[in-house]
Amino acid sequence: MRKPSSxxxxxxxxxxVAVLICLLASGGASSTAEKGQVFDVxxxxxxxxxPIAEYIVQGIDDAAKSGAAGVIIRLDTPGGLDLAMRxxxxxxxxxxxxxxxxxxPPGARAASAGVIITVSAHIAAMAPGTNIGAAHxxxxxxxxxxxxxxxxxxxxxxxAYVKGIAKKRGRSEEWVEKAVRKSESITAEEALRLHVIDxxxxxxxxxxxxxxxxxxxxxxxxxxxxxxGAVLNEKRMGTRxxxxxxxxxxxxxxxxxxxxxxxLYFEFSTPGAILPGVIGGISLIMAFFAMQxxxxxxxxxxxxxxxxxxxxxxxxxxxxxxxxVGGIVSLVIGSLMLFQTPEPSLRVSWxxxxxxxxxxxxxxxxxxxxxxxxxxxxxxxxxxxxxxxxGLAITDIHKEGRVLIHGEHWNAISDVPVTQGAKxxxxxxxxxxxxxxxxxx
Length: 441
Known about the structure:
This protein is an alpha/beta fold. It folds into three domains: 29-240, 2-enoyl-CoA Hydratase, Chain A, domain 1; 249-376, no CATH class; 382-438, CATH 2.40.50.140. The chain has 15 helices and 16 strands. The strands form four sheets. Strands 8-5-3-2-1-11 form a six-stranded parallel beta sheet, sandwiched between helices. Strands 12-13-14-16-15 form a five-stranded mixed barrel. α2 packs antiparallel against α9, α3 (82-93) packs parallel to α4 (113-120) and α13 (322-337) packs antiparallel against α14. The longest helix has 34 residues, at 2-35. It starts with a helix and ends with a strand. Residues 23-34 and 140-144 have low confidence and may be disordered.
């Protein structure tokens, strides 16, 4: 009788353990279901530059390595550099996980390069009150503008590029061509109606609910989005990327250039000061780094350098202010030409340019004025420095005597008799004697 009883107890224990395991498994599964999949969120609210492209592409790679279910790019951009945009589009098109581009918040835009980035996404969405378009290519290369033939080549290349992406994503090829050729821009609602985007969503949670269950084509095959209840993981820029992104701002690059030139001017004018040279060298290096990512015009850089040369020449050459005026004109024109592009986000803003030119011009004018004043000041030493100096007769002077000038005893000569204790003035220096005259009371 004991043996069957033992077997029943063992069976009961096994059943209890199995039930507990099932409960734990179902609890874990329900917990995972409640928690949802993880989506990394990248926020871009700036012009598209190489540091921004690195931030997005690296964010996609990191999300794939960490096992995230996808990446969401919150986009608000006025446009940017063609090469940086192509790096981003290439990274999205070849991403091993879904990439959602969401133009937000209300009032944001996906202009110029932002159009192609949005169209290349697996899921493209916009918030109400946003717009997309104006993707006509502009001259963003170093050196200046393009002739008509080159402009047509660049335009046709951009059209073929964006139409190929739109076709791959099943979006309106007709509209993206208009956006490039005619710089057409549309609202979020129009973009949805024209099949440029997939959703109009008031916020990110609404977008995740709308995208849930949507099938997308990845480089590795088909994938179904499970976005409902997804966990959002904000991925911020690293310190290095933030610094590089800040340096890529044309306003900061312009200020660094002026600071660098002023620092080197101080170092060359007063050798051995060290600190101005160090600050100027560092500023110039950072300015040149920024300029390699911006549409710099060599003529603008040359004019700014020429203005500094004219300011320095004013000290050496008496031009009655002509060189100074030429330096200011050269500085203004060079600053206007420095970043030659119709893209406002890649030009120096007027709010920075006008104060910077004014302060720089006033600075060099003040330095020039101080230098000229020092050159025109009467000499304080030597024979020339004694002329006009006043002193006291310490003996009677009949033809010759002695006087005290600035605490020094001098042998003096006078054509007019001078009594002891009288005030005198030096009118000439003859060898080691001073010719003086009495100062009338």
